[in-house]
Amino acid sequence: MTTAMPxxxxxxxxATYTSATRMARVLxxxxxRPHGWSFAAIQDELGISERTLLRYLAACRKxxxxxxxxxxxxxxxxxxxxxxxxxxxxRDVDSTAYQVLSFYFALSVFRFLEGTxxxxxxxxxxxxxxxTLPPARRERLQxxxxxxxxxxxxxxxxxxxxxxxxxxxxxxxxxxxxxIEYARLWRGGETTVHDFAPYTLVLYRGGLYVIGRSHRHxxxxxxxxxxxxxxxxxxxxxDYPRRYSPEKHLDGTFGIVEGPETEVVLRLHGEESARxxxxxxxxxxxxxxxxxxxxxxLTMTVRGTSELKxxxxxxxxxxxxxxPASLRAEIGAALREAARLYDTAGKGIA
Length: 350
Prior knowledge:
11 helices, 12 strands, four-stranded antiparallel sheet
């Protein structure tokens, strides 16, 4: 009687240099992708099927482990996509670098407040964050301020506004009313007094403004911090309005809201200037349409044109006001006056 021999299972294919190279490429790719790498992108990069990728990942889960025996990377589901990412410990170095960078840039916005209580708070936060990191990573941050840098444009000086900033911050947190003596800009130092409920401290174009409600007005207004002569916190509290949003009182690049809504149409002259300006988000309502001459038309609805006028004048011959006619006339008059200042005829200037 002949005994049938059991069928041998086919041996799994031994790892080849090609397989090892591909697995190394996956790991190398993950090091530069702290948020993960999709299955589809890996398959396209390596020219392999999903079945082959799963086989590589299964092998790596056994062979590529950390000192605790945990896998170095894992597969997770994100919506309808499958993604490979580094596991927690292996991901720390990259994610920490991204967190530090995000945190540093967020803090750097307030660097212009040198010499004030707010600047001291920024420095304390940055130092406290550094202390939470392991010594080796803390050492890498020694030159961080030189590796990532921000440049603020035409910032205001608040070194003499320390007491004002301290009162504003406390009143905002505690929702307390303020008695503010405020200098009028065009009245030769004349001041007015406001019983003021502060809602928001706004950083806008290198300056600080407090938005809130004053007893002198029936609407929400803003006050420039540098023009606050005195600020005293009163014992009276106010209810912070539920429907209030600071976004409703800001107008993109063109400032803090002041004035009626106006539709503005600008012509951007020249292909280069049109391309540069169209690449910027100047206003939430902006619409840019290219014209046949290489320029473009920029249309937007602004609330008040005071700061818009300054921006248009700064663009010189590259931006022309088409509508409204009143704004075009104002810009034209200002440019003619500027041209008169530079008219050297008859003044003996070479």
